[in-house]
Task: structure prediction
Amino acid sequence: FYWNTKVTALDARKGRIGGVTGTNLRTGDEIVFEGQAVVLATGGYESNLEMVRRYWPKHLGKVPERVVLGSGTNSQGSGMNLARSAGGALRNMDHQWIYPRGIPDPMHLSEGRGLYTMVAASIYLNRRGKRFMDEMSATTDAVRAMMAQPGGTYWMLFDEGGANSVFAAGIDWQDKQKVRREIVNNEAVVKTAATLEETARKAGLPPAEVRASVERWNRAVDSGLDEQFKKKISIALPDGRSFTLSKIEKGPFHLMQIYPLSRKSMGGIHVDLNSRVLNREGKPIAGLYAVGETTGEGGLNGRAALEGTFLGPSIVQGHMAAAHLASTIRLASRQSAPIAATKPAPPTPARAVSTDCRQCHQMDRLLTAKRPGYWHFERLHAVVASRGYECKSCHAEMSPYRYNAHRIDRVAQIGVCTTCHLLTE
Result:
């Protein structure tokens, strides 16, 4: 396992893929990894905006003016590009799962990333200030309706009561106070004012039309029937009860602009039932395998799938690849050489050793340096700094300080991932 290392090329020898070339993002050093086969397990491409737009599904409508990226940060399509460089074929690349409720991620505004959001007590307005779809539409229907609007965008309108129901998906957004602080009260994401007209002007929507849409909605709530979309103003719950939607009447009022959110790709590298990568003639490329989302799960999900239905096919593909590899190549047993750790120089006798990590590690400077290969380090420690954690909370193996054993234990670090990455139901 190599940290901060990016694979840049597949290496072919005697007509067979037999290794990869990589680059250490922190040092710039090139590393060559040799083997008898290569398995690509690099994920999809839904965080690569150029690829999302290039392979936009035609059945969803025209390509929108703006898409916010909601997949993993490393879902860049790198494995697909590597496979193509070796003659591999791609298929079903337009099989994308797009959500119709994306907002810019306030923690990563400059990076074009987005969050999936829901506001139960809201109505959806287009640039003309009019409702244009049933807010409870199925995902694909909602995306189509969204793409039919000018710019492929719309606004969620909700009042102060609805502000308490704003939901953002993700482990970083389970704190209601944080949602309120970073999303609802953030002028870069939500426009807020005391009156409907003022809120509409802030969002660039026609105030009179916004007012008319709200009045029509409130009359529908009173009557129990949404005449515009021929449905009842209620939601049936599994236990037999029903939930009636609310009026929009209590200021301040909020308008949140919504964009399509990229999420999952169900197309990718063409593989056979043994997970071997196929070329354009449908023949396997010797030594090259691919599994998981980088293959679109082998096409098993068609055009629609959620996280759970990605996991099963990915595991099956991994088993198929492993079984075929075990039956066709002989693995030589070897013992990996330990990676040498650089020991800090011993302290000089004239200076006492401090147990305050900040005496040596200037975190303010390190977090603003923006160094290649330190993406996770920067974000992780920014969260740590904002929450006021002590260093030993995550680096207990380094406390107390011992100059001849002062290095991070990578295995121990796996146990502290849940400090930030933990979703409670």
Observations:
- The first strand starts at residue 5 and ends at 13.
- The chain is about 25% helix and 20% strand.
- Residues 184 and 190 are 6 Å apart (CA to CA).
